[in-house]
Amino acid sequence: xxxxxxxxxxxxxxxxxxxxxxxxxxxxxxxxxxxxxxxxxxxxxxxxxxxxxxxxxxxxxxxxxxxxxxxxxxxxxxxxxxxxxxxxxxxxxxxxxxxxxxxxxxxxxxxxxxxxxxxxxxxxxxxxxxxxxxxxxxxxxxxxxxxxxxxxxxxxxxxxxxxxxxxxxxxxxxxxxxxxxxxxxxxxxxxxxxxxxxxxxxxxxxxxxxxxxxxxxxxxxxxxxxxxxxxxxxxxxxxxxxxxxxxxxxxxxxxxxxxxxxxxxxxxxxxxxxxxxxxxxxxxxxxxxxxxxxxxxxxxxxxxxxx
Length: 307
Hints:
Layout: E1 15-16, E2 19-23, E3 28-31, H1 33-42, E4 53-54, H2 68-81, H3 89-96, H4 104-119, E5 123-127, E6 135-142, E7 153-160, E8 163-171, H5 179-203, E9 212-215, H6 219-226, H7 238-249, E10 253-254, H8 274-283, E11 286-288, H9 296-300, E12 305-306
Parallel strand pairs: 4-12, 6-9, 9-10
Antiparallel strand pairs: 1-2, 2-3, 3-5, 5-11, 6-7, 7-8
C-alpha cells in the first residue's frame, strides 16, 4: 500500500473506535471491554446484580414515558457493542425495534441487558489460525415469534476458516405462513452472504474448500430444497427456491441437517436457557478475558434472554 499511497506505519493495531485488539501466538482477539465498563459506569450499573429475564417484549400497554433522547442514545451504544458481542445481538435487535417509542417497559429490558453485561464485560471474539479452509454457516428462524405482528425473526452466523466473521439477527419483512417458509427465506439470505464472502476471499487471492456448507435444523425446508418438483405450495418462495437450487446444482453448496440442540444460530433468534446459551457462546468463539469478574449469584442461576 505504501507504493500507491502516502501512509505511516503506526505499528500493531491495539485500540480503534472503542475496540481493543490483542495479538498473540494463539490468535487475535477483539473485544470492547473498556467500552462495556464505561457504559456500565455511565448508567450507574457497575454494582448491579444479575437477574433472570424471560418475557416477551411488545408494545407497551402502560406507556410510562422516559427520557427519549437519553435512552435512544443508550440503545444506540448497545447496538455498537453488539458488533463484537453476538451473544447480545438478538436482545439488542428486539429492543431497537421500539427506538421511536421507548417506554418504561422497554427500558427495563435494556436494564436487563446491562445486568448481563455486568457479569461478562470481558467477552471477546477470538480468531485462530487453522488449516481448515472452508466457509460454513448456520441459519435459523423463530417462526411468528413477534407478539406485535407475528413476523418471524431470522438469524445466521458465518464462519470463515473456523472463525466467526459475520452474524445477523433481524425480523423478517413479511409474515411467514409456516416455519419452513421462514427457514427457507433465511437460507436464501445466508447463501447470498456466503457467496459474497467467497468473492472477497477470491479478491484477496485466498482459495476456500468446496463446497460451502449451510447448516439447517428444519427437515421440511431441506426436503423442499432437494425436491425437483415445483409444487403450488412453494410458489410464494419460488425466487428463493431457484436461488438455492441453482447453487446446489453447481455443487458449490451443500445443506446438511443439524439437530436442534446443536444449532448455533438459535442464540440470534430466540431466548435460550443457560445451558443452551453457553453452548452457543462457546461455539461462536467468544472467550472471557476476565472470568474472575463473574459473580457467584450469576453462576447459580439459569439465564434466559427472551424478549
